């Protein structure tokens, strides 16, 4: 029996291996373009009644019925499904990567703009031109409404991979009630790191209050990089990535010094930063008035402490929550007085879709001015479209502040494939500082990790 | 696959006892073709779910395969590169060490001693008390790990956690301050039931007369356990230790409590593998580490089996 078993197993295994290594199919831009009956699936990291619920509700209650109706008018029977996900960002990314890798997944996907480069380099996403034909893509009216810089969010190597879904900006949020108790002004606008630390020192006198939160450590994941290291690095006058070189020099050292000061002098709470659910806790603390200042995306305003739909609702948000721009370390450092970082989601077409033309139609429909206005409903968000922003942001002082004051000074993350691993190394550097390592030691560990990831010649330690 | 029957005609001709010849004739009467047809479904399943994944992991483990990025599109075979990386990776060594501590602390020492202790104490207890205690302890074992993790989260949490309320240590974040101890205690609590049940049945096999003799000659509890009980249950101890060690080494539940943190302080190997593969996208590296874990499991299992065999 054993004599038979071995060849059988080998043959079976090789057959399976061959199946898995199948070559990717060629793209046909007009594949099924005339289909009279079709099924499309939309996915995003949002779920009805859960994470980003408003977005999920908009897709299921507005986009899908309206799109189906519009297709019916053209004599096409379309079935559109929404597959929501309420997972953490890392898990959602893994799911999308596995879907795209195996040629499965939804036809239209909403992903973080920073993933575009990685997926493109892996051949898991295709440029829109290649997928649909240049004339098809250029014909969309919406491009004229989306600023070039924002279009960059859905691009990689100067080629468009998707339509930006919106963008955001990072500011210093603060609790005006606590500020009043500590004798600080309600129209606070720090001009330097010293101003921030002084305000935090003032808040430290209030019992039961954590003065300041700058995300740190590995438990916070990408939030540490995006809401901590990168804005502070910009504030110290250096971008993370410039001309192929990655920052690992004294500017980063200054940022780590700042972390050391915050978390070793009791201005921030190092424990929250290390808890598995630390980020959610800090949101709750802010909503309960137990956290004074935090660097956050405008998501905090519209998705977390939002009085009716937020995950940590704050009934008196409009009276209590204040905001200010993130200052440069000193006025003028790096040629700026204020800085910010932005990210945003991008809607893309799955290269493996059976109906590329119709998926692209759906994508355009989702990003039409009418559709995006419907999505805002009562609330507002900084959208990718200038025409929509002009209308929907007028009623929201915080978001129009972001559009008017913050976006002009903002920066985006490096759209290259090595970024996520560099980001993880930066998180580790801040974790080292919180754990009590000296700044020079944390910095040299980071340099070693960085050289391994991007190669020693691409490290800027000067 | 371990059928003792040899189907080759040559083997049949060498058989001499009539009874055995009859059995083989029955089986061989099917014809080789039909015999294979019977075994094939099982073989296919084994190939599909056991052999193929193992071979696939081995293949991925010698490449620089990634979830996204350039190496996802075009993975290169890099031979033992991943294993060399692991040798120089402080985070991997940290994980390996933590796994050893986790297994020793929670399984080899914790569950074993506590399980035996409970079984020993319950030996003479009234049946109802014995059944009640066993049911309560067993509850911990049959609850889904996510539920158990959630319960322990509520116990160890900094804000309003039960432990802080009991000890009056307001605001202590146990999971952050004592991550390894936390997951060890958690695992002891969850896994003791199995050891207890196994030792309960083992103790029933110890001849009462010997225990009585020990009592008569005035042996202490410890002397009784060491000189009378242990020689009888040595096999059970080894088997139990082997099983719970392997389960613990491969346990992913700590992730639910601490996510491996803070700062990798509770990142046992399964958590490390998960984070490398799915958070870091390093599928090749993670596969290589899983293979190392598999080899370590086999080595441990081999050692225990040797000990068992030496005894018999």
Automatic annotation (TrEMBL), chain A:
<keyword id="KW-0732">Signal</keyword>
<dbReference type="InterPro" id="IPR006059">
    <property type="entry name" value="SBP"/>
</dbReference>
<dbReference type="InterPro" id="IPR050490">
    <property type="entry name" value="Bact_solute-bd_prot1"/>
</dbReference>
<keyword id="KW-0762">Sugar transport</keyword>
<keyword id="KW-0813">Transport</keyword>
<feature type="signal peptide">
    <location>
        <begin position="1"/>
        <end position="18"/>
    </location>
</feature>
<protein>
    <submittedName>
        <fullName>Multiple sugar transport system substrate-binding protein</fullName>
    </submittedName>
</protein>
<dbReference type="Pfam" id="PF01547">
    <property type="entry name" value="SBP_bac_1"/>
</dbReference>
Automatic annotation (TrEMBL), chain B:
<feature type="transmembrane region" description="Helical">
    <location>
        <begin position="38"/>
        <end position="62"/>
    </location>
</feature>
<keyword id="KW-1003">Cell membrane</keyword>
<keyword id="KW-0472">Membrane</keyword>
<feature type="transmembrane region" description="Helical">
    <location>
        <begin position="135"/>
        <end position="155"/>
    </location>
</feature>
<dbReference type="Pfam" id="PF00528">
    <property type="entry name" value="BPD_transp_1"/>
</dbReference>
<dbReference type="GO" id="GO:0055085">
    <property type="term" value="P:transmembrane transport"/>
</dbReference>
<feature type="transmembrane region" description="Helical">
    <location>
        <begin position="96"/>
        <end position="123"/>
    </location>
</feature>
<keyword id="KW-0812">Transmembrane</keyword>
<keyword id="KW-0762">Sugar transport</keyword>
<feature type="domain" description="ABC transmembrane type-1">
    <location>
        <begin position="97"/>
        <end position="304"/>
    </location>
</feature>
<keyword id="KW-0813">Transport</keyword>
<feature type="transmembrane region" description="Helical">
    <location>
        <begin position="283"/>
        <end position="305"/>
    </location>
</feature>
<dbReference type="InterPro" id="IPR035906">
    <property type="entry name" value="MetI-like_sf"/>
</dbReference>
<dbReference type="GO" id="GO:0005886">
    <property type="term" value="C:plasma membrane"/>
</dbReference>
<feature type="transmembrane region" description="Helical">
    <location>
        <begin position="175"/>
        <end position="199"/>
    </location>
</feature>
<keyword id="KW-1133">Transmembrane helix</keyword>
<dbReference type="InterPro" id="IPR000515">
    <property type="entry name" value="MetI-like"/>
</dbReference>
<comment type="similarity">
    <text>Belongs to the binding-protein-dependent transport system permease family.</text>
</comment>
<protein>
    <submittedName>
        <fullName>Multiple sugar transport system permease protein</fullName>
    </submittedName>
</protein>
């Amino acid at each position: 029996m054993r004599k038979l078993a071995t060849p059988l197993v080998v043959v079976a295994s090789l057959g399976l291996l061959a199946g898995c290594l199948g070559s990717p199919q060629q793209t046909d831009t007009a594949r099924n373009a005339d289909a009279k009956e079709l099924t499309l699936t939309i996915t995003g990291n949002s779920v009805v009644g859960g994470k980003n619920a408003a977005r999920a509700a908009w897709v299921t209650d507005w986009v899908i019925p309206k799109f189906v109706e519009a297709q019916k008018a053209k004599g096409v029977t379309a079935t559109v499904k929404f597959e929501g996900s309420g997972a953490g960002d890392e898990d959602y990314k893994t799911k999308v990567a596995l879907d795209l890798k195996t040629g499965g997944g939804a036809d239209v996907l909403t992903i973080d703009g920073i993933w575009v480069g990685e997926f493109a380099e892996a051949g898991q996403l295709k440029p829109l031109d290649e997928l649909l034909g240049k004339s098809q893509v250029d014909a969309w009216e919406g491009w004229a409404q989306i600023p070039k810089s924002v279009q960059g969010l859905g691009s990689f190597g100067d080629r468009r991979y998707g339509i930006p879904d919106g963008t955001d900006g990072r500011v210093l949020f603060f609790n005006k009630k606590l500020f009043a108790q500590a004798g600080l002004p309600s129209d606070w606008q720090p001009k330097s790191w010293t101003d921030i630390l002084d305000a935090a020192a003032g808040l430290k006198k209030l019992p039961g209050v954590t003065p300041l939160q700058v995300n740190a450590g590995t438990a916070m994941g990408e939030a540490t990089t995006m809401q901590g290291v990168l804005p502070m690095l910009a504030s110290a006058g250096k971008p993370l990535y410039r001309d192929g070189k990655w920052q690992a020099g004294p500017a980063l050292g200054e940022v780590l010094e700042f972390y050391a000061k915050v978390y070793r002098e009791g201005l921030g709470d190092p424990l929250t930063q290390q808890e598995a659910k630390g980020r959610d806790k800090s949101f709750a603390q802010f909503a309960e008035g137990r956290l004074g200042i935090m660097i956050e995306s405008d998501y905090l305003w519209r998705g977390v402490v939002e009085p009716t739909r937020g995950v940590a609702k704050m009934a008196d948000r409009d009276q209590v929550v204040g905001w200010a721009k993130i200052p440069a370390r000193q006025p003028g450092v790096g040629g700026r007085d204020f800085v910010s970082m932005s990210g945003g989601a991008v809607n893309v077409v799955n290269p493996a879709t059976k109906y590329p033309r119709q998926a692209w139609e759906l994508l355009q429909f989702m990003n039409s001015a009418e559709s995006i206005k419907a999505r805002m409903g009562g609330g507002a968000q900084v959208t990718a479209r200038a025409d929509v922003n002009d209308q929907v942001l007028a009623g929201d002082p915080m978001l129009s502040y972001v559009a008017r004051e913050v976006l002009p000074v903002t920066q985006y993350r490096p759209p290259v494939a090595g970024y996520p691993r560099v980001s993880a190394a930066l998180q580790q550097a801040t974790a080292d500082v919180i754990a009590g390592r000296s700044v020079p030691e944390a910095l040299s560990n980071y340099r070693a990790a960085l050289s391994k990831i991007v190669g020693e010649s691409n490290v800027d330690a000067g | 696959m371990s059928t003792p029957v040899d189907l080759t005609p040559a083997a049949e001709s060498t058989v001499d006892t009539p009874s055995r010849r009859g059995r083989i004739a029955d089986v061989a009467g099917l014809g080789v073709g039909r015999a294979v047809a019977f075994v094939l479904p099982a073989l296919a399943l084994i190939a599909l779910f056991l052999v193929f994944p193992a071979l696939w992991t081995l293949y991925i483990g010698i490449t620089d395969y990634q979830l996204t990025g350039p190496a996802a599109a075009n993975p290169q075979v890099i031979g033992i590169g991943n294993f060399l990386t692991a040798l120089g990776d402080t985070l991997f060594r940290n994980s390996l060490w933590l796994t050893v501590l986790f297994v020793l602390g929670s399984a080899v020492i914790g569950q074993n001693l506590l399980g035996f202790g409970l079984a020993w104490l319950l030996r003479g207890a009234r049946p109802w008390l014995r059944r009640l205690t066993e049911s309560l302890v067993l509850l911990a074992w049959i609850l889904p790990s996510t539920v158990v993790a959630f319960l322990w989260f509520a116990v160890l949490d900094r804000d309003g956690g039960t432990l802080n309320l009991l000890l009056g240590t307001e605001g202590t974040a146990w999971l952050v301050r004592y991550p390894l101890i936390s997951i060890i205690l958690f695992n002891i609590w969850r896994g003791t039931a199995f050891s207890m049940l196994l030792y309960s049945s083992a103790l029933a096999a110890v001849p009462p007369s010997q225990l009585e003799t020990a009592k008569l000659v005035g042996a202490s509890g410890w002397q009784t356990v060491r000189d009378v009980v242990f020689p009888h249950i040595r096999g059970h101890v080894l088997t139990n230790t082997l099983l719970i060690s392997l389960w613990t080494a491969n346990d992913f539940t700590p992730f639910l409590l601490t996510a491996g943190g803070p700062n990798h302080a509770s990142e046992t190997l399964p958590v490390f593998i998960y984070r490398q593969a799915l958070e870091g996208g390093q599928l090749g590296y993670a596969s290589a580490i899983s293979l190392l874990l598999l080899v370590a499991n086999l080595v441990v299992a081999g050692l225990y089996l040797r000990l068992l065999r030496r005894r018999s």
